[in-house]
Amino acid sequence: MLPPSRRDFVSLTVSESGSYTNSKQWRRQSCWRKWKQLSRLQRSLILFTLMLLLVGGITTSPTLIGHWRADLPNSCFFLWIALKQLFPVFLFLSAESRLEAVREAFRHAWKGYKNFAWGHDELKPISKSYGEWFGLGLTLIDALDTMWILGLEEEFAEARQWVAKELSFDKNVDVNLFESTIRILGSLLSTYHLTGDSLFLEKAKDIGSRLMPAFNTASKIPYSDVNIGKGTAHPPQWTSDSSVAEVTSIQLEFRELSRLTGDPKYKLAVMEVMKQVHKLDGKQDGLVPMFINTNNGLFTHQGMYTLGARADSYYEYLLKQWIQGGKTEKELLDDYLQAVEGVKKNLLKKSTPSGLTFVGELSHGHFSPKMDHLVCFLPGTLALGAHYGLPADHMELAKQLMETCYQIYAQMETGLSPEIAHFNMHEGSTQDVDVKIADRHNLLRPETVESLFYLYRFTKDKKYQQWGWEILQNFNKYTRVPTGGYTSINNVRDPASPSPRDKMESFFLGETLKYFYLLFSEDPNLISLDKYVFNTEAHPLPIWNSL
Ligand code: DMJ
Fold first, then answer.
1. Distance between CA 210 and CA 200 in Å, rounded?
2. Beta 122-124 vs 129-131: how paired, if at all?
3. Which atom of ligand 1 is nearest to the CA of 245?
4. What would the mean pLDDT of 455-481 be, rounded to a whole number?
5. 519: which of 136, 259, 453, 493 fits an S-S bond (Cβ 3.0–4.6 Å)?
């Protein structure tokens, strides 16, 4: 149970960042990063002094004020000048305070991880312990590039030290190919790109080559699990199927590994999967089933179509591979465009009473108004495609779905989204969203914040930042654990008792907090979307022709 006082969850504990002396890497940082290292007080003093100089300079300059003064009484004129000069400063300070709130949230999450789960996969913040999945320090690795982007030098330095001294992939453990590719390989590659530190590339090569046995199947469709110590791979115990999203969402990372190492084997393995899926029977208007068999390479469980679990990032990676490769791979683009049409034709409906546009599911011709939170990656992906010249109606759809994803949060009593929402479509409904008891949990997932980031970058509409700000405050109110860390919760409909699950997923640091930070940043060059493409775990990888 949560402690009785909810107020504990809003108490902020700002810690000062210390010094970091790895000068080779940090010499490359911009003045902007230096600026971000100053305390809030230091920044406010500098801004205030600059403001005084500016206002003083303008108001005492006869040439500047000459003809204005003729028309305005003195008091109005000086007030107008002062407000005009102050407005951008206010805007800047408000953006800066939101960025600082994200850094503070990260430090709080890190504090729990450091104190109770250091070097382990996941923090259990309520029991002040840890959970192990692969035994590879998953949270620490997933969070590396977030720390770099947020400018958390001290935390980054201690994490780098752990990677250098403690991280070994020479372990007799089974790992999931997809999860370890997007979280571990993806993060090591992006951290290498951001820092230029070869330690991360060496680690990326190591884990990448240890994952390759997964592709030794009759069909060349990879197994879901690999033992990275023994070099053996296998499907889950109960089936010889792999999930379609898993085998088609490892391509950005392995393609990049080939480019960096000059060894084509990684790229060839993952592109073979895409080639086969491109040709397979069993799609409906570009929509794919959820499973694929590793023996014969055919879709299984046909007739079921979703943009949620087990299919989601297939669609995301069609577009992103096309972007990564410099918009030359036509089959990927064709499959993506066809899939978007398939979504519009088969899965898109409006709810009652508010007419929210949502993406449902299809099971053997029967439509279900069920939408996973996972589907909320889609507004961001559609907006990214529109930015890259795909039809303008993709952007319109992105905006509509963004509103829906926000409403899934706003209509809950905690202001936090459930894992799955059901939309009402019958006349006379009084509320758009229903949540089944089993679906009321929130795992600190990133997809809505991710899409808010894309929508804000491309439209500059402040409402997206405001929606994100509300969501961050609700995470602080209902999921923050006073002794450090954030926890997933069981019930987003009960603010009095959200019921913590005692688990902080690695993607909260790897993705959710990173996307919050990028959403609140006004700097379009902070991970420019014309230079980087984010993998499905929010790790930015370079777009090849932008290098
Ligand atoms: C992450 O691991 C990735 O975003 C993945 O694509 C989907 N699931 C989680 C976050 O919800």
1. 15
2. antiparallel
3. 6
4. 98
5. 453
